[in-house]
Design goal:
Chain A is α+β, with helices and mostly antiparallel strands. Chain A has four helices and eight strands, in the order E-H-E-E-H-E-E-E-H-E-E-H. In chain A, a hairpin with a 4-residue loop joins strand 7 and strand 8. The longest helix of chain B is centred in the middle third of the chain and has 9 residues. Classes of the chains: A alpha+beta, B alpha+beta. Chains A, C: Its EC number is 2.8.1.12.
């Protein structure tokens, strides 16, 4: 499997298996991962599930561009972005980003960079669904724009 | 010329559709937006000057001055909220 | 199991299982993990294994103090440090640090903070063992002291 | 008074032991280090003023001016390299 992987689908992921896969290169000393999880308090206070919509085609292109940018900035051995779509219940994982490098500073920085850009550049939209069935589209956060801005 | 338009998330709900094929003479993204606004109702509201939305031309983010050609895919959507 | 866990032993860990465990709180939206891995190029160029020595008693105390400091700085829902000891072959995981929070900025910062302090404050020592059986104690890196210094 | 001394990593190898019990009158960590240096050989080399090593008193990092009491556990080791 390619050392740099992008997946957008409804399937769950196995973070431990992916971390182990990205650790296999004997040059890798540090593997950092981020998992985003559906939580109860979002824009609403009693979120039971999220519905994740995306723009097929553009999603994959924008994620590939984000990964290419990370590789230009840090010496990465491997990276993975797996973003789920469709309906995800409270507590379920939404996104997995894993970065592997010889040293931890590069792995940490690249993982955080990928998340900041994924939150502001990749065409995904979240709809929150409350326990009573009411739903609303999540509003973009200015804190995310700020987090992405620090890399420029 | 023929354009393929796509709408996502809140805009998809507001416009009551996720795509349409449009016969248009709009030379730019800005001209296309003006044409859509002229439909009134949700189109005028959601695409008003003060509202925050994004436009992608052939799957790349684009600004109002981007030129259009027949067969182009133009997507209009709210700021993204994935991750 | 307690939401804040410290383990020092020879056993392997299951990063995916620990990430899932720390995601269980409905207030958790972000889980960041770090895995350190035995790599070929350390102080030597053909490392086949590491021997990890530690100071039982002080190790656990210093890790508990590091976790307490992280909790004072960031709103964490859960955290885990699992540091292995004994002989670990090339490619094997050495340490797992997982942090969970409502938001990703706190989870990333706390995970990186824990690693920086673990590298400079916790009484572990690595001996590199080459394929031909030669061995040497790893020298402390000034880059690690620098990384820890930025939090002060 | 009786002190429990522990050595780790390179210092354990250099001194040929990982612990010892010492009967000493050293009032401080600094005085204890001077007593150990006076043994000569690896003790004088490894604990020389210019060398980098750490001392923990009862499992907390300590400096040369820290006072000693009977039963104290004093560990001497190189800078740490875990993680």
């Amino acid at each position: 499997m390619d050392a740099f992987t992008i997946r957008v689908d409804a399937a769950a992921f196995d973070a431990g298996q992916e971390i182990a896969r990205l650790s296999a290169d004997p040059g890798v000393g540090a593997v950092v991962s981020f998992v985003g999880v559906v939580r109860r308090h979002g824009d609403g206070d009693n979120v039971a599930a999220l519905e994740l919509e995306h723009y097929p085609g553009m999603t994959e292109k924008s994620l590939a561009a984000i990964v290419a940018e990370a590789r230009a900035r840090w010496p990465l051995s491997a990276a993975l972005i797996h973003h789920r779509v469709g309906r995800l219940a409270l507590g379920e994982p939404i996104v997995l980003v894993v970065t592997a490098s010889a040293h931890r500073a590069a792995a940490f920085a690249a993982c955080e960079f990928l998340m900041d850009f994924l939150k502001t550049q990749a065409p995904f939209w979240k709809k929150e669904i409350d326990a009573d069935g009411h739903s609303r589209w999540v509003e973009a956060k200015s804190s995310d724009e700020g987090a992405a801005g620090r890399w420029q | 010329m023929k354009l393929k338009l796509l709408y996502f998330a809140r805009l998809k709900d507001a416009f009551g559709r996720d795509h349409e094929t449009l016969e248009s003479d709009a030379a730019s993204v800005g001209a296309l937006l003006a044409e859509l606004r002229a439909r009134g109702g949700a189109w005028a509201d959601e695409l008003a000057e003060g509202r925050v939305f994004r436009v992608a031309l052939n799957q790349e983010l684009a600004t109002a001055d981007a030129g259009l050609a027949t067969g182009d895919e133009v997507a209009i959507f709210p700021p993204v909220t994935g991750g």
